[in-house]
Amino acid sequence: MQKKLIKVHPEDNVAVALVDISAGDVISFEDQAIVAVTDVKAKHKISLVDLEEGDKIFMYGVLVGKASLPVAKGAVLTIDNVKHQSAKVTEKTDTIGWNPPNVDRWKDRTFMGYHREDGQVGTANVWLFFPLVFCENRNIETLKEVFEKELLTQPKNNYRNLLRSLVQNGSEAAVEDINEPERVFENVDVKFITHPGGCGGIRQDSESLARLLAGYVHNPNVVGATVLSLGCQNLQIEVFQNALSVISPNNKKPILMYEQQKMGTVDEMLNSIIKSSFQAIKEANELKREPAPLSKLRLGLECGGSDGFSGISANPTLGYTSDMLVALGGTAILSEFPELCGVEQELVNRCESHESADRFLELMKAFEKSVVDAGSGFDMNPSPGNIKDGLITDAMKSAGAAKKGGTSPVVDVLDYGEYVTKRGLNLLCTPGNDVESTTAMVGSGANIVLFTTGLGTPTGNPIAPIVKVSSNSDLARRMSDIIDIDTGGVITGEKTIEEMAEETLEIIIQIASGNKPSKANLLNQNDFIPWKRGVSL
């Protein structure tokens, strides 16, 4: 029989409902009978004690809120009776030891990747087109239409077939399928980025975008790039080249640069781009996958559309997977700083050095101050969907989100746009916004991203596989076209976190080796949103 409640940490004074509970239900829990005094939907929290106004609420063993009204034992916690509150931290007070998981069975495992001259290994082989400024987006879109239609296999388009039948017959009568060209090159993909930046804002925003785009070129999943510039924008070609030289001083990847204001007509420029890029893509197709140790994987850790189960199934699964990879000599990246609110002390104490601990606190404080100066705060982070499914304070959401980072030491702390240089768990300063965060992690070197969700999200990335992990089996069934891994068995008690993590690592190896595409890749979901930290001028 499935349990009705789970308490995540021995010091918690609330529990999570694993099933819907009705007022009057008597639940046997921890050698006591708890009478539900209100209805409690699955994923929401029930108080295990009588709370007075101002009493602290603990979950995951940390402070996640305070009672704004008296809350009876057995009552549901809501945004009406609970307010955000989190513990404050000022310095590193301890160094937390780490007991790594046993990974003996994985030590000789490999994945099939694309080896780069600098020692990095890609899980994909992408020729990337992007602009330095939004003025070139239209030209990028033109090139996208040409290259995708002529070089890549296009899936059967049922939507175009439906519209064709409506145009021809006025109904959904059968029509001849729209046939697309077969794939020309087997070993290289062609991807395209557009964005709204590069000019019109403060210089710092363009420099930040340059670092991000340089990170994409340096990412091991990219074999080369075609870069379009207008000529007069803030993000000059030299700014981009300087940013690339910082993270890749000996870059050997081919980069084709075009500046429209020096090339005459659009027709002349596009003809030149198509000829040169085709030849470069043809050469990139000569590369083949070869075995690589799992230590060459750089795993981005993301959550989006989270629910009340995310922090007890999907996120801990990622945490254990991350620990396994780190134990194997690999790298993990934990981002979304607004969703680390309330767990700073643990992360600070996990930092290997005082310098990293100090930098983490500095970045957190500066980020929070910028949010407050804008008239908001980290407490406004939970979305309506989060709240509806049980995440009612930012600290509660953050405590569950931080579980993605496992328990391994923090080897480095990076600001947005900085590239990973150390193996192990890295903290990366990004917003909590799903796409801004995944965009940043890939720009910092992640060659595959694990993305947990309880509500469902189609987010993908142009150059790195995004692997969706559902917190519950209902979502996995209902949105099967976007979910790669279902951790719902943890909720029902059919699987342990450790078992689920081992399944996850196996799937990562298959996707990283090109043996199966992620669902986001099948949907051709290529999201890219830079973090604009400044104002427009």
What would the keywords be for this entry?
537 residues; alpha/beta; seven-stranded parallel sheet; four-stranded parallel sheet
Describe this structure in words.
The structure is a single chain. With 537 residues, this protein is of the alpha/beta class. The protein contains 15 helices and 22 strands. The longest helix has 20 residues, at 354-373. It is globular, with a radius of gyration of 25 Å. It starts with a strand and ends in a 15-residue tail after the last helix.
What is the strand and helix layout of this fold?
Layout: E1 5-6, E2 14-17, E3 26-29, E4 32-35, E5 45-47, E6 56-59, E7 62-67, E8 82-83, E9 110-115, E10 121-122, E11 126-131, H1 137-151, H2 158-169, E12 189-192, H3 203-218, E13 222-229, H4 237-247, E14 255-259, H5 266-284, E15 290-293, E16 298-303, H6 314-327, E17 331-334, H7 344-350, H8 354-373, H9 384-388, H10 394-401, E18 410-414, E19 424-428, H11 434-443, E20 448-453, E21 466-470, H12 473-478, E22 485-486, H13 488-492, H14 497-512, H15 519-522
Parallel strand pairs: 11-12, 11-13, 13-14, 16-17, 16-20, 17-19, 18-19, 20-21, 21-22
Antiparallel strand pairs: 1-2, 2-5, 3-4, 6-7, 7-8, 9-10, 9-15
Helix pairs in contact: 3-4, 6-14, 7-8
Describe the sheet with the most strands.
7 strands, parallel
C-alpha-based Rg, rounded: 25 Å
Query: Beta-sheet strand percentage?
Result: 15-25%
Weakly predicted, low-confidence segments: none
Instruction: Give the number of DSSP strands.
Output: 22
Distance between the termini: 61 Å
Q: Count of helical segments? A: 15
Mean model confidence by pLDDT:
92
Oligomer: single chain
What coarse outline follows from CA principal-axis ratios? globular
**Residues in helices, as a percent range:** 25-40%
Main sheet: strand order: 18-19-17-16-20-21-22
Structural class: alpha/beta
